[in-house]
Design goal:
It contains six helices and two strands, in the order H-H-H-H-E-E-H-H. It has 142 residues and is mostly helical. A two-stranded antiparallel sheet has the order 1-2. The chain starts with 9 loop residues before the first helix and ends with a helix. The relative contact order is 0.11. The model has no long low-confidence stretch (mean pLDDT 89).
Length: 142
C-alpha cells in the first residue's frame, strides 16, 4: 500500500505573500488570474469560467469589478454580436506588470536566503508545479 506524499506546508505561506502583494494593488488572487488569462487574448465569459474553474456568475462578478476600475473592457464579439468578450486594457496591462514586479521583488528577497544552486532548484520547482497544474487542467477539462 502506498502512502500519499506529504508536501511542505510552506505553499500556504507563499500564497499569503502573493495575497499581500496583490492587496497593495487592490487585487484578489481571482482578479489577478482573470488579468493573467486576458493577457493571452480576449475571452468570453464562458471561456474565462472554464479556464478559471469557476461558475459563470463568479466571472461576471470578477469582471464587473475589473471593468469598473478600467482594467478590463467588455465589448461585443466581432463574430457574434450577441456574445460579449473581455479584453485587457492598457491600464490592466500596467497593473498586471506591477503585480508581477511585486511578486518578483518579494520572491527575490526571500530567495536571497538561498545559495545560487538552491535558488535555481527553487525556481525549477515552481516551474514544474506550474507545468503539473497546466497538465492537470488539460486532463480534467478536455
Amino acid at each position: 500500500m502506498s502512502h500519499p506524499t506529504h508536501y511542505d506546508p510552506s505553499i500556504a505561506g507563499l500564497a499569503r505573500i502573493v495575497e499581500v502583494s496583490l492587496e497593495q494593488l487592490d487585487l484578489t488572487i481571482q482578479k489577478y488570474r482573470v488579468l493573467i488569462h486576458l493577457s493571452r487574448g480576449p475571452a468570453s465569459p464562458s471561456e474565462l469560467a472554464d479556464r478559471l474553474s469557476v461558475r459563470p456568475p463568479t466571472v461576471t462578478r470578477l469582471v464587473d469589478g475589473l471593468v469598473e476600475r478600467k482594467l478590463v473592457e467588455r465589448r461585443a464579439d466581432e463574430r457574434d454580436g450577441r456574445r460579449s468578450v473581455h479584453l485587457l486594457t492598457r491600464k490592466g496591462v500596467a497593473v498586471l506588470a506591477k503585480a508581477e514586479a511585486a511578486f518578483d521583488a518579494v520572491l527575490d528577497d526571500i530567495a536571497g536566503e538561498l545559495d545560487a544552486d538552491e535558488r535555481t532548484q527553487a525556481a525549477e520547482g515552481l516551474r514544474l508545479w506550474g507545468e503539473a497544474m497546466r497538465r492537470r487542467w488539460h486532463r480534467t477539462h478536455d
